Amino acid sequence: MNERPSVIPALHHIPPGIQCAQDYEALADRFIPAPAHAYIAGGSGQEATLRANLAAFDGIGIAPRLLRDVTAGHTRVKLLGRELRHPVLLAPVAFQTLAHPGGEIETARAADATDSCLVASTLSSFPLEDIARATRGDKWFQLYFQPRRESTLDLVRRAEAAGFGALVVTVDASVQSPSLRARRAGFRMPDDVRPANLQHHVQPGQVTLSGGQSLIFQGLMSEAPTWDDLAWIMGQTALPVLVKGVLHADDAHALQAMGVAGLVVSNHGGRTLDGIPASLKALPRIREAVGAGYPLLLDSGIRGGSDIFKALALGADAVMIGRLQVYALAVAGALGVAHLVKLLREELELCMALAGCPTPADITPAFIER
Amino acid sequence: MNERPSVIPALHHIPPGIQCAQDYEALADRFIPAPAHAYIAGGSGQEATLRANLAAFDGIGIAPRLLRDVTAGHTRVKLLGRELRHPVLLAPVAFQTLAHPGGEIETARAADATDSCLVASTLSSFPLEDIARATRGDKWFQLYFQPRRESTLDLVRRAEAAGFGALVVTVDASVQSPSLRARRAGFRMPDDVRPANLQHHVQPGQVTLSGGQSLIFQGLMSEAPTWDDLAWIMGQTALPVLVKGVLHADDAHALQAMGVAGLVVSNHGGRTLDGIPASLKALPRIREAVGAGYPLLLDSGIRGGSDIFKALALGADAVMIGRLQVYALAVAGALGVAHLVKLLREELELCMALAGCPTPADITPAFIER
Amino acid sequence: MNERPSVIPALHHIPPGIQCAQDYEALADRFIPAPAHAYIAGGSGQEATLRANLAAFDGIGIAPRLLRDVTAGHTRVKLLGRELRHPVLLAPVAFQTLAHPGGEIETARAADATDSCLVASTLSSFPLEDIARATRGDKWFQLYFQPRRESTLDLVRRAEAAGFGALVVTVDASVQSPSLRARRAGFRMPDDVRPANLQHHVQPGQVTLSGGQSLIFQGLMSEAPTWDDLAWIMGQTALPVLVKGVLHADDAHALQAMGVAGLVVSNHGGRTLDGIPASLKALPRIREAVGAGYPLLLDSGIRGGSDIFKALALGADAVMIGRLQVYALAVAGALGVAHLVKLLREELELCMALAGCPTPADITPAFIER
Amino acid sequence: MNERPSVIPALHHIPPGIQCAQDYEALADRFIPAPAHAYIAGGSGQEATLRANLAAFDGIGIAPRLLRDVTAGHTRVKLLGRELRHPVLLAPVAFQTLAHPGGEIETARAADATDSCLVASTLSSFPLEDIARATRGDKWFQLYFQPRRESTLDLVRRAEAAGFGALVVTVDASVQSPSLRARRAGFRMPDDVRPANLQHHVQPGQVTLSGGQSLIFQGLMSEAPTWDDLAWIMGQTALPVLVKGVLHADDAHALQAMGVAGLVVSNHGGRTLDGIPASLKALPRIREAVGAGYPLLLDSGIRGGSDIFKALALGADAVMIGRLQVYALAVAGALGVAHLVKLLREELELCMALAGCPTPADITPAFIER
């Protein structure tokens, strides 16, 4: 199953059936081999969190207001001192060549074309420098801590040099393995899909466990970052550091207190611990914990423009798009991702217009139906 | 797909399978071409609001009382100083020739035959004057603001001249496009279905957008009415002006305060912004906001007589029937619509009788099961 | 469809597949013609109340207690000064020859064999005198008010003479017609199924309605009983009078205050007004309204012994079994009904034993899981 | 149906499709004859409690914390003064030769290999002495009261002599019979499956019931244990006595007060009275009733490591695994059960690591998502 079965190669045009952003999801399984599709689409465990992410949006209504003048409307948001044209960020999805041979380079070109802030993954299929060159717009670098601090620091220095404007440290995925769905579909990472950023780093040797020690606690988790690691990396760079994977208000408050520049409320798209809450559900209490004005992004579960509206209403400054991005990439490469962003933005604008909100700043909890 | 496929022409009798008002819904797809049926039946987005409209009625119970004398019972209601025989109004559905070649004329004849108050749409397939002539009963004119105020005013003047007794200004549908369902079914408005009332009006030129401007905010919404526009039109006519599309108590209160004659609580049958609340859910807090005695109508989601009972119990003075009207029109023209009204009225009367409410005024929140 | 299609005649033995009381429901459609089965099984309208009756039991849990001595356990209950062997009453189901040629006579024999209190319907297929002769046990007569008081009084006098020990006046079904389900299945009452008790009574002439009068209010409801009618009949008989069809606490209180001997909390098995609450849901507040010690029965929705336990825990002194009775009658006549009662009683006893309740009096709200 | 149909014999290796503990459930029906599988898998009545056990876990979320150091993590728990390597106990499932010819001996070997505390059933297919010899680890003996006290005492003496460290008295299954599902599948206990521990005991004669006596109350329940019986057995042994089958806080409190050493919160896997609450739902109020530090185990519904995490968070010190144990036994004998325990332990460890809990003592209600 390691060989990719024959599937449709990515198109060079937008297929006629795409009527809304979510349509890329329905189409994607014809463009991605089944095992890889299972790897991308699946969530951990019984996928309760995966389902909860979607259900959380469905469970929240919008309370529109009438007759408001929105002709001066726009979607601009300020984040980390920068003005973004719109609040749709491209999430740091790993190994994008699973979906398209052009991988992250195509994605970056779409970001460039749509003025989208790109977040490049540590585990990208192409070197971060190549990705950085492919977009003139805002770009952040997502950082996974490496087994050795020198490796971690090397990644940071390269990101700084390549012009990334912020670091996004992911802290909720210390142990990663393909989901049950992916394993049942026979997924194995293809031999030619490798973490390009890490190829010159010495990989850590196997942990040697003594009798009675746990593969989890004394093995895999021995490389997981702690509060000390986070403080260390913040001391090594002048870049703003955001933390991704936050769901608990107390953690959010502690991170803010130690100088973290912003948070990404996320459950990793339901790909880490099954049973944890939907990101959207965690968002309001995190906004309450950090107060107004502190940068918060929402990741996991966005499937359309009204989802973005709901996230903004419940406290997010912007959102990250993960799976939809990969699906659009698989269908039509850079063109697909750019089209996806355009659709999401139009859907958001239509939602804002019909709800009576000319700008993102107008989208407050008052527009959520209780 | 623009040509209509072969479907059953409207009957000249009531088909034997019709046992209740809702049965017209089940039958209609044999009388309407599939794309047009999708256009009529569909709701916006993922149709969450469309489903919510129905679920809201199902989620509410009736608390009946025993042994009451209802032999003096009736369904008469007072609205805008007029006494209506029953609280079932025919909603202003656009382009009724999509369902039946006789379109709004047939509907008006049914209104005439059943003493139903008819609400004619700006976007009718026949001129408002022809529609007005087809019914001797109460009739109101639904007004969409036009790109130019002179066009809007011309419509009002014609409605006044034709004998319409009130204006119903729709304010929740500034941007309209066929639903995803309709687009996926290949719906395009047939060439011979045109807004008869607007054929002599100059259509606005294309909006020219400069770089960075939004098709939504600076484009389509530039023609959307605002509070000022509403105040202006109220100053131009002696007709009572109702506003249709209200869901928020604060908007309801503001509209009442500016002299609007009554409100139609409506989410446009789930056809505008997906994710907004069911009309029925919004109704009680709007009644609370405007107080007793102020005219309120409920639109969206009525499928039978007990739904009308529930709407009246939660604060409505009357209801509007949209999709069912079109379905009955497609099945049997004026005869079908008249039969539909008869069924709805009988179902309402039976519900009132069994619940112990002889008149609409007796239907209070006390008859709702908590 | 008025002729009965070929179906399996009732057996003279218990079929092997019957493992629990509810199994009679699954089997019955092979023993009853489809239209008649639809008539028996169906509920009014969209059958929301029919479904709610069952869901109400499913939604309530049992809180068992441990290690209690139940060896002196029994199922005896006191009702109207009589001791019944068990709290399972056979509900007054009309026209039982629809299910079995022996109809109510078979049912009465089963009551006799199982010490069950039988409630004979006004609309029985056999004369009440014949039914009374078929059981030596407790029996009550269910009374529908007739168009003329002399007819009603005649029924009461015959019930008194035949030895019925109480009257159960049904007040929630003033307008009755086959359900949508029954009409869609083509049900018409077979010509040979007639109300035996009423054959010598003059049927009322057609009501003549003047213009604008309602078939419901001025027509059908002109024969519905009112508070005055109930008071009148109570003055005509020394028999205790119970009222069936009560769902509202205020009605319950008023009925108790006027001297009614007991109430049957019932929504007529979901066969009258669709949308009214489940009987079980109404039960606790009615018990609260009438206080301890006042006779209350629960009808509608019982499908097994644990349902009886739940009803008793929530305030009922006994329950009535409707549809299951008819299903068992169809499958195996008197034998089937007797077996059904035996199963229900065993299921109840097992539930009591495992919950730690030796007698019905021990089954209090404390045994309901919150 | 008493003959076992041809099914796959237990494997001597772990089948490749097993990715998580619950996968043994999906595989088991190929290794167990259909009637026996129905007997094992089924629950009593309509299986509401069976479903509730699973739904209770699904309905509870986990609230993870970030960046915590778990490298000193472990799964050790203290119970009855002993330290167990992990909180996964093998529940006392009866008649394990239904699933595998090696039955309880295989299970005991798996307990031995995985340092799991084994709970042997009174109704084991092999003598308790043989089971005890098959594992060097902790073992408890589950006791059903026998019709005669001398038989019960004999079991206790044998358990003491065989080295069992505690008695687990089951009190919630005084009446046992195959479920509806099992009966419908034609299950009868095979002739060669017998309670090995009881073969030398005189079985009680049939209870003779006099007229009007109940098979349940005066028959089957005459042998059910009461509070006095429990006090008696506690006076006969120096072994700690736990009670299994507790769901009510008042019972828990009373048992603690009389000196019971610990409780197993259990509804017998949904196999006794249908309609009683999920074990997990009952757990928090029982912990509240007995206070901190008192031994509590949770039984019924565990299907994976995160379920164990949730049980510990809500007050359990350890859990018992019933059906999954039998399924793994059927698939691969001792090897399967050992693998199951390994999977459950790894899943628990992964859940603890990702939630930020290094030890069981760290798993508090604060980690439950509200």
TrEMBL record, chains A, B, C, D:
Keywords: Flavoprotein, FMN, Oxidoreductase. PROSITE patterns: FMN_HYDROXY_ACID_DH_2. Its EC number is 1.-.-.-. InterPro entries: Aldolase_TIM, Alpha-hydoxy_acid_DH_FMN, FMN-dep_DH, FMN_HAD. SUPFAM superfamilies: FMN-linked oxidoreductases. Gene3D superfamilies: Aldolase class I. Its cofactor is FMN. Residues 13-370 form the FMN hydroxy acid dehydrogenase domain. GO terms for molecular function: oxidoreductase activity. Belongs to the FMN-dependent alpha-hydroxy acid dehydrogenase family. This is Alpha-hydroxy acid oxidase.
